[in-house]
Amino acid sequence: MLKATLRSFLAHKGRLLLSALAVLLSVAFVTGSLIFSDTVSRTFDRLFASTAADVTVSPKEDLDEAVPSGRTATLPAALAERVRQVDGVAAARAEVDVDGLTVVDEENEPVGPTTGAPTLGTAWNPTERSPVELTSGHAPRGDGQALLDSETADRKDVRIGDTLTVIAPPGSFEVRVVGIATFTTTNPGAALVFLDPSTAPTKLLGSPRAATGISVDAADGVTDEQLKQRVAAALGAHTYDFRTADEQAKSDVEQLGGFLDVIKYVMVGFAGIAVLVGVFLIVNTFSMLIAQRTRELGLLRALGADRRQVRRSVLAEALLLGLVGSTLGLAVGIGLAAGLIELMGLLGMNIAADEMVIGWVTPVTAYVVGLGVTFVAAYLPARRASGVSPMAALSDAEVAGVGRPLRVRAVAGAVVGAAGAAALVGCAVSERTSSAASLLGLGVVLSLIATVIAGPLLVRPVIRVLGAAFPALFGSIGRMSQRNALRNPRRTGATAAALMVGLALVGGMSVASESMTASFDQQIDKTLGADFVIQNTNFLPFPKEVTDEVRGTEGVGLLVRGRFTPVAVRLPDGDRVETTAAGYDPRLDEVANITYVQGDSAAALANGHLAMDRDFARDHDVRVGGTVPVEFPGGRRAELTVGALTDQDAAEGFGTQGGLYFGLATLERYAPGGQDSALYVNAAPGTSDDDLRANLERTLDPYPQVQVRDLADYKQLVHDQIAVLLYLVYALLGLAIIIAVLGVVNTLALSVVERTREIGLLRAIGLARRQLRRMIRLESVVIAVFGAVLGLALGLVWGVCTHEVLALQGMAALAIPWFTIVAVVIGSAVVGVVAALLPALRASRMNVLAAIAHE
Q1: Which one in 211, 567, 648, 790 has a CA-CA gap of 20 to 30 Å to 135?
Q2: How far is CA 452 from CA 276, 386, 412, 719, 825, in A?
Q3: Contact 746, 284 (CB under 8 A)
Q4: Transmembrane stretches, by residue range (predicted)?
Q5: Residues 564/69, Cβ–Cβ less than 8 Å
Q6: Closest by Cα among 608, 588, 75, 501 to 278
Q7: pLDDT, position 608
């Protein structure tokens, strides 16, 4: 049996190739993501471990900033002197590190990275742990001098002697580049500007007595933990945050973890799609191979092989397929990881390819995924093979299940489908976002499984409709192609399922994104009343001087500032909710249309008052006139009076949890030092919008990071953000289509082999080569369109239910992207044509006499 299994595998290696490609893609994405993330993690672990001070003292921050406030947490620089007096301290330095800077050259072009990495300003304090070293020029001395990192200098063609403008939170200032610093470790992609330590606090923090942290070196014989305890005792353990080198490195890695997780989850998503559609391909391949080997399996049974041996033989073939696919996939995954590392290099994150990390988990995972996928996919065909009777060797019987009833599928599909439908209905009627989202996920999974199970039941009615025009358009050729697709519903359903999965995903996400876009458009039209909104390109806050320049621009009639801060609210029901609150100037009503359920803007923006969303207030037993304790950054606390309740849905500026906002006077009292994130500007009487826009753009020319947007620009900004999600979905769709094409090619190729004698007879009675190719192409097209119709129908249901979840967050508009749906159906027909090219060509080149004699 082992010899027979190996010979059978080698005899069908060409037919198994496409299935092996599905396994290869699945394993490649899994291993590529693991290798890449492990390599980046190891690289940054080394970087942070080698650069962290023995003990770091930093301001205590209990609240996470989900939305940047522009506030830089500081502590007194004089603490460094106190720390130096602590027993066991070898050295202590006041550090100044500020991110979110904008640096421009003499032509007003940004010098910093454009990939999302920050531009950092810091004091030049070189130590043995510094990640950079001075390689040309000299250290900055006094006001107006700076160093620039070598990679930024090379990328932007900056040389020693050039003048740069640094736009920092306290204001803009010019520096002359007097030296270049080169990274001795991995550059995380940031641009670094180093200033003289004596001027950095004033330039970057606005105060000569401020620092962002204290770095402490331990004396010989003193451990980091001992030093941490001594410094904490000297300064007050609850006043600041104290971290050892290991703790600081771990904290830095956790901050980086979000970036790594995004890449890892994206690649795992690709792997998941590849695995899912690959299962359908492998099931179909083995089902057809077993059907074509009925006589062979019958002979094995007649020679004495029992059911278990036959089943093991088929599963062994599948495991061999998985072994080959996993091995190749592991190799391709290593190449994929290397490609990602090179891509990161182009984006400014320099990771050495020769430091690639391939831990034992990676190959184990590769083979578990590859062998597991093929074993699971081949199990049902293997069971079917074990049921072949010895008498099958004497006949042309098949075990493909053509004639077997589909009652079991009908019952199973109905049960699972009913459960999925119930979950989706529950999602639609639920009033809580969390429960609705859970029911949506359950409904999506169950409805997908039900459609896969019941797919063969839908083949005959749907394909009869889809192919109804074939006889009229293509005559007998069209009729035969339709009947070929109807011949084996199981096979057709499994072939179409691979394409169905991808199109269901893209259909659902397209409806959801289109509905989000329409909802935001409605809310922006409804809420935004300003002529222009001025914001940073990447939504970071901007310095006060920008606000001052805009306020002094000719034609500006009204300017309302918007600012954000993290807060924690303790509510009457006992919950403590961390969220982001906004602060606005008193004339907010003139630039925003706010729907109040109780109270008004005057009450909401009064000193010591705040407003919140009515649903949030209802859920937590908050009443107008009551007070709620609010925690601000830096440990400040306040009892604020609820002045108003709003019904703003997902309107811009109020879309954070709770919809909290208050007056800027309240915000500056309890969270000073923040920066403006948005300016809402109305034109003065007698000034046209076009004139005001031209004046504002002229004013903001020295600040390339700040943009002037009107209503249409603001909508486009939202559209572009939502489009990023769609790009990922379309990429997943592309992968699903690639594997679906492999599935259609495989099915048609095996079908051609199965119908060799039939094709020979058709050719003998006068069927031309061109007619034969057309018949196979039409069969492929109708199968692909069948998968598209099922997928889009399922996706529309998912999209509508997703919209119901979004509606609970205020995004109530439902929009169906009909253009996308029609384009996908047409594209599916094209996919069918492409997938049929090789099988149709092979069929048309058959020798007629040899085909007729084929058994």
Answers
A1: 211
A2: 11, 24, 11, 34, 19
A3: yes
A4: 265-291, 318-340, 360-382, 439-459, 493-512, 724-753, 778-800, 812-838
A5: yes
A6: 501
A7: 92
**Rg over CA atoms, the chain:** 33
Beta bridge partners of 103: 166
Residue 123 has φ and ψ, to the nearest 5°, of -85, 140
Q: How far apart are CA 189 and CA 119, in angstroms?
A: 9
Hey, what are 218's tokens?
């331990």
Tokens linked to 275? 């695995």
Strand 191-195 relative to strand 119-123: parallel, antiparallel, unpaired? parallel
The whole-model pTM stands at 0.76
State phi, psi for 155 to the nearest 5 degrees: -65, -35
Quick check: 337 pLDDT over 80? yes
Q: Could you say which DSSP state residue 592 is in? A: B
Is 186:45 a contact under the CB 8 Å cutoff? no
461: Cα separation from own chain's centroid: 38
Choose among 675, 694, 677: nearest CA to 531: 694
Cβ atoms within 10 Å, residue 687: 16
- Pull the structure tokens for residue 712: 């249409």
Helix extents (H) in 684-710: 689-699
**CA atoms within 13 Å, Cβ hemisphere of 340:** 24
Q: How far apart are CA 585 and CA 609, in angstroms?
A: 13
**CA-based nearest residue to 55, from 210, 248, 270:** 248
Contact 99, 120 (CB under 8 A): yes
Q: Which of 436, 399, 487 has its CA nearest to residue 802?
A: 436
Neighbours of 335 (CB within 10 A): 13
Higher pLDDT, 453 or 652: 453
Long-range pairs of 158-166 with CB within 8 A, sequence gap ≥ 24: 158/105, 158/111, 160/136, 162/105, 162/106, 163/105, 163/106, 164/103, 164/104, 164/105, 164/106, 164/111, 164/193, 165/103, 165/104, 165/105, 165/108, 165/702, 166/101, 166/102, 166/103, 166/121, 166/193, 166/203
How many whole angstroms separate alpha carbon 416 and alpha carbon 444?
A: 11
pLDDT at residue 855 is higher than 60: no
Q: Can you point out the beta strands (E) in 700-850?
A: 706-709
CA distances from 428 to 106, 167, 442, 647, 803 (A): 57, 49, 13, 21, 9
The conformation of residue 128, written as its DSSP 8-state character, comes to T
HEC per residue, 209-247? CEECEEEEEECCCCCHHHHHHHHHHHHCCCCEEEEEHHH
Distance in Å from the first CA to the final CA of the chain: 23
Sheet containing strand 240-244, edge to edge, reads: 89-95, 213-218, 55-59, 240-244
Write the CA distances from 844 to 94, 471, 775, 830, integer angstroms. Answer: 80, 21, 11, 20
Q: Which of 532, 473, 471, 478 is nearest to 678 (CA)?
A: 532
Q: How do residues 735-775 score in pLDDT, each as one tens digit?
A: 767 767 777 777 777 677 777 788 888 888 888 889 888 99
Q: Are 624 and 644 in contact (CB under 8 A)?
A: yes
Q: Say how far apart CA 744 and CA 836 lie, in whole Å.
A: 8
Contacts of 202 (CB under 8 A, 6+ apart): 170, 208
Residue 100: the pLDDT is: 80
Contact assessment for residue 410 and residue 454, using Cβ atoms and an 8 Å cutoff: yes
Q: Which uninterrupted H or E stretch holds 63?
A: none
Round to whole Å and give the CA distance between 232 and 215.
13
In sign, the C-alpha dihedral spanning 634, 637, 641, 642 is positive
Half-sphere exposure of 544 (CA within 13 A, CB side): 8
pLDDT band at 419 (very low <50, low <70, confident <90, very high): very high
Residue with tokens 């490195």: 249
Across-strand partners of 176?
Answer: 145, 163
Amino acid residing at 779: E
Task: Take residue 658 and report the two structure tokens written for it.
Answer: 């709770």
Q: What integer best gives the mean pLDDT of the chain? A: 83
Dihedral of the alpha carbons of 503, 506, 507, 512, in degrees to the nearest 10? 160
The b/e string for 211-220 (b: 16+ C-beta within 10 A; e otherwise) is bbbbbbbbee
Q: How many CA atoms lie within 13 A of 110 on its CB side?
A: 15
